[in-house]
Amino acid sequence: MDKKKIKKEYNEKIKNLVKLNKYYYDLSKPLVNDNEYDQVKEEILSLEKKYDFLENKNSPSQKVGFRPSKTFKKVFHKVPMLSLSNAFDEEDLINFEKKINNFLDQKSSNELEYSAEPKIDGISASLVFKKGKFVMGLSRGDGKEGEDITQNLMTINDIPKKITAKNFPDEIDIRGEVFIQNKDFENLKDKFANPRNAASGSLRQKNPQDTKKIPLKFIAYTFGYVNNMAIKNQSDYLNQLGNWGFKINPFNKTIKGIKNLMQNYHEIEKKRNEIDFDIDGIVYKINSFKLQKRLGNVANSPRWAIAHKFSANKGVSTILNIEIQVGRTGALTPVAKIKPINIGGVVVSNATLHNEDEIIRKDIRIGDTVVVERAGDVIPHIIEVDLKKRNKNSKKYIFPLKCPSCGSKTIKEYNSITKKNDAVRRCSSEGYECEKMTIEKIKHFVSKEAFNIDGFGKKIVENFWKLEMIRLPQDIFGLNYEKIKIMDGWGQQSVANLRYAIEEKKNISFEKFVYALGIRHIGFENAKLIAKTLKSPEKFVNLSKENKIDDLLNIDGIGETQITSLKKFFLNKTNLKVIQDLQKILNITKTIENKTDGVLSDKIFMFTGKLTGMSRAEAKSLIEKNSGTIISNVSKKLDYLIIGEKPTKRKIEAAKELKIKIIDQSDLYKLLDKSS
Ligand code: IVH
């Protein structure tokens, strides 16, 4: 037996494992499938068993096996897990408060009370307690559906497993952050880029015993579904969490007024390095639950909360090149390739230049020395050029007048609202005619909010495109799995998983289908509105044939911009082929309205004039919460015209003519009260 040779073989295997981990976690680009990964681990372990002189700190026998090779059961959250919008400076906070006061129809000088909570940069989790017992723990997932990671969460000491307090709700899902302390991360440094990745890897272990080896912590800060809770505001809730045995952030505060929020922000930012866990900002939440409820949500984030990000880390580098990326809707985004620099622990080699106007305004040129800024999860960008260091021969950057992908003319559109040309230059092709746009459209199609095909990430789209396996979204449903099986990086199991994930998504909701098409100006909210109004997918497919696109203008929220975009979409032959083919392959499920049992079910409303003590936006959300619908033009469909102060006479006349009921705000309250 040649000891040296064995050692060499062993060390090579370890080196390979470290590389596989790096690609999987830090670069999100797995090099091998799960089975192959497990095999590499097994080989190392069996060598160690055979030869006891073999030892390495990176061996799976010394450390947790990290990479999960398990798919967890998916479970819907009873109440979705939302995300937060970001604020970067005082002005953003002033706007945030202003919007809230507007929505509540309060004076904009009105100072609101907030719970200010340092934002831990970890992984959020939702813990369901029934009758005081911790029964199920879910990851956030896409916000609507999480993964059942109960067994792994069970291993965390900070999570109480049984709560006997009298005032503990019958059922509650307590939400908070799972994280790793910086001192514990020291031992895991060579495996993960940062504590957040380490926490995420550990939480998704196949074997809870492996999760247990890592000292994960849990801090609680909010709740989802709750049954019977008498608490009236966030700060009392946080205190109560403490009494129930949860850890809460020791730096939480209750604060009134933006000036005081700013002061607290600066104090915490100064302390940031002394705190033994990563925080990337402060979350502000309107303290009163009653106000939170009135405010509700916009799309995926609450109106009543915001994350105030800490100021970015900066670094100096040089621009090596400027590349143009073509987005799904044709927008050309210039990206600076910079000499790689480490900014706050992350190596940065790309910085966005936003758009053509930004390059002109800052006169950014290839070869320039620049200051680069990176804030948390926001894409790094260039703040300024050091003109003193500019090479005398450098030339202004000329933005391409032809699309670098398909060669079509690039255009700047005129914006009729701002009465200016857009800052963004676009490829003028119609979409599937441009290669880069098509690839981006397919990435959007499989993305989380759209078809959400498990394991079908951006890299796979690019790879399949290169291999000419996909050209249009419908090709995803006709993949040749036999061919994939023999491709590099794929195996029996991973192909079976992919196939399952794709087959599963042949059942798709109408709104996700509309959103997935990636029609410009039709985001998820608009897609929902369209699906809710049309009800049947066939109607959508035949929209243009039946000349019905203009009718959508009556939907509150859909305007001329959306209508023009839809018309353009339906005029394109490839788009029509995409939707017709997809309609044949898919089972597009009719839209089931969330709550059709509200007191205003089937009733259609319209407003004219100003309401009192409530903004139009709040009234709209109130009606929708009770299953009513709002439209924006008087028509036969309308059931009630609600008039406020200074209504438009023309609208009242039109309503009278059609014998539509005309009511005021107090009548609306009566309607809402009737059966509640
Ligand atoms: S509240 C609707 N409170 O930030 C409110 N989130 O972007 C959403 N986070 O996914 C959650 N500290 O992972 C809330 N004190 C805190 C938080 C916090 C950290 C994270 C959480 C969430 C993300 C929102």
Describe the structure.
This protein is α+β, with helices and mostly antiparallel strands and about 675 residues long. It folds into 6 domains: about 5-50, Orthogonal Bundle (Helix Hairpins), CATH 1.10.287; about 75-310, 2-Layer Sandwich (D-amino Acid Aminotransferase, Chain A, domain 1); about 310-430, OB fold (Dihydrolipoamide Acetyltransferase, E2P) (Beta Barrel), CATH 2.40.50; about 435-505, 5' to 3' exonuclease, C-terminal subdomain (DNA polymerase, domain 1), CATH 1.10.150.20; about 510-590, 5' to 3' exonuclease, C-terminal subdomain (DNA polymerase, domain 1); about 605-675, BRCT domain (Rossmann fold), CATH 3.40.50. A hairpin with a 2-residue loop joins β15 (about 330-345) and β16 (about 345-350). α1 (about 5-25) runs antiparallel to α2 and α16 (about 510-515) packs across α17. The protein starts with a helix and ends with a helix. The model has no long low-confidence stretch (mean pLDDT about 90). The chain binds 2-(butylsulfanyl)adenosine. The site of 2-(butylsulfanyl)adenosine has 15 residues, from β3, β8 and β13.
| Strand residues, percent | 15-25%
The averaged pLDDT comes out at 90
Q: In total, how many domains does the architecture comprise?
A: 6
CATH superfamily of the largest domain: DNA ligase/mRNA capping enzyme
Overall 3D geometry?
Answer: globular
Structural class: alpha+beta
